[in-house]
Amino acid sequence: MHARTKILSLTVALVLLPAVNARAQVAWEPTLEAALSKAKADGKPLLISMHTSTEIACQRMLKTLYTDPAVAPILSEFVLLPTCFDQHDEVVKTVDGKEISVSPLFGTLGCDQLRKNEADVRKTFFDKSEIKVPQHIFVGDDGKPYLKKIYELKKPAFITLLNNALIIYGSDAADGMDKVTKGFLKTVKTGHLKNKRKAVKGLLDLEDPRKLDVLYLTIQSIHRERDKGECIRAFGKDTYAWASDTVAKWLRDPSEHVRNCAVVSLEELGATGVAEQLLALFEKARDKEFRKDILRALGPCSEDSDTVKSLLIKNVKARREVDRIACYLSLGYFLDDEAVQALLAKQFKKEGRSGPAKTAIIWAHTYLRDQSLIKPMHALVANEKNHQLKYMANAAELKIRTGTGVARKDGRGGYVKLHKALGAIFGNDKILRNSYKYWKGDN
User: Fold this and answer.
1) β strands within 16-160, DSSP E
2) What pLDDT digit, counting tens, does each position of 115-167 carry?
3) From CA 410, how far away is CA 395, in angstroms rounded?
4) How is domain 235-440 classified at the architecture level of CATH?
5) What is the sign of the dihedral through the CA atoms of 393, 373, 408 and 238?
6) Please, are residues 426 and 367 in contact by the beta-carbon 8 Å criterion?
7) Average pLDDT over residues 346-355
8) Measured between alpha carbons, how far is 113 from 31 in angstroms, rounded to an integer?
9) Residue 148 near residue 139 (C-beta atoms within 8 A)
10) pLDDT higher at 90 or 260
């Protein structure tokens, strides 16, 4: 660590590594005024990053943390302002079609602006005492610092610091909410498990993006992964699709259980746009249940991706029945492709006496709500002796035509029967789908 009478290097949790990747991952605000304004408008904490280009501790952090894929997404939860005390060699870059001279550390800001930022930050937030670096400064809605950290940090400590800063910010933001919202947030934080879920839904029903931000931070402050996971599962309802981006943030959580809960909720949200993240998770996942749930989520979350389709087609030959079932269900979103229709018809025959796998293939025909799929679906079960499969084909047709697999005349008994039939494909999941729990009457 380095210290000077006038300034030192302050690298608040966001100093960017001097590389193209780093600049692509972190968006820096140009001035203190702009950063404070954006933080207030976006409802995010401000993270000021002050440093010097010659300080070894700063350089180590720049080269190891600020482009780390585990760190960069957390940094995106802050508005970031860089400063640098010393003048150093600049490079010429093309920005918005113009060639400008910039610091190689930050990509779009020159040394003069970085030094001005340092002077403005020091004048606004510091007295005349010396400043030590690396240091991280977090500023709240009131424009005042609420957390500072000096000294070099390794990756685990740095991530902990960033998460703690978000939790503190969220707690302060919750205090400014209306009475009803504060009650919901308190229940999410400290209530019993079932009440936590109800409170999450209560907040989501308000459809307020600002309250969603505070809800996210409140859930992040929960330490027990089971409780945190249950809160995330409460998002799993298509009417909450507007909150999909928030759920996607949990795909990077250190806990595999939390990531798994996020995957299942994204599946139920039909969150298109997360296919690349799911594919990356699948590549690294080793837990069989987690891999199965990713396969099942890829269909509703892929937006007709050829890469996803190829992966699913490859895995219909998996040895584990649950993996094949997951692929059949996801391929239901690709049944507008005649080759996929032919593949599922072929697999239906190959599954022999496997009732669950055949049930999955039948139910997959419901996802596009395409009535042209009704005839080929019934053709699958034309020679079947299993009456349950014939029942499922009729329920699937009803689902395609009306949006529900149960006729009104069948009442509650019809839902019980459908729930029992769907139990073959949904009943053994470690993380139950909310729709399945709803059919059971327990969601």
Assistant:
1) 46-51, 79-84, 91-95, 98-102, 131-133, 135-139, 145-150
2) 999 999 999 998 777 788 888 999 998 899 999 999 899 999 999 899 889 98
3) 12
4) Alpha Horseshoe (1.25)
5) positive
6) no
7) 95
8) 8
9) no
10) 260
Domain 2-169 has CATH 3.40.50.12780: no
Residue ranges covered by each domain of the chain: 2-169, 235-440
Can you name the residues that pair with 3 across neighbouring β-strands? 132
* 28 C-beta neighbours (distance < 10 Å), count: 21
Percent helix, percent strand, percent coil in the chain, to nearest 5: 60, 10, 30
* Bond into 145 cis (ω within 30): no
Cβ atoms of 355 and 365 within 8 Å: the answer is: no
**Can you tell me the distance from the alpha carbon of 192 to that of 189, in angstroms, rounded to the nearest whole number?**
9
Q: Long-range contacts: 272-276, Cβ < 8 Å, 24+?
A: 272/300, 272/301, 272/302, 272/303, 273/244, 273/301, 273/303, 274/244, 274/248, 274/301, 275/301, 275/302, 275/303, 275/305, 275/307, 275/308
The pTM is what?
0.79
Strand, helix or coil for residue 99:
strand
Quickly tell me which residue has 């994204």 as its tokens.
266
Handedness of CA 144, 148, 154, 160 (dihedral sign): negative
What whole-number distance in Å separates Cα of residue 333 and Cα of residue 439?
22
The 3-state secondary structure of 239-266 reads HHHHHHHHHHHHHHCCCHHHHHHHHHHH
Alpha-carbon torsion angle 64, 69, 74, 76, nearest 10? 100
Give tens-digit pLDDT for 176-210.
889 999 999 999 999 999 999 999 999 999 999 98
- Give CA–CA dist 170/39, Å, rounded: 14
CA Rg, the chain, in Å? Answer: 26
pLDDT of residue 147: 95
In the block, which residue shows the tokens 């690349």? 276
Token readout for 150 is: 């000096």
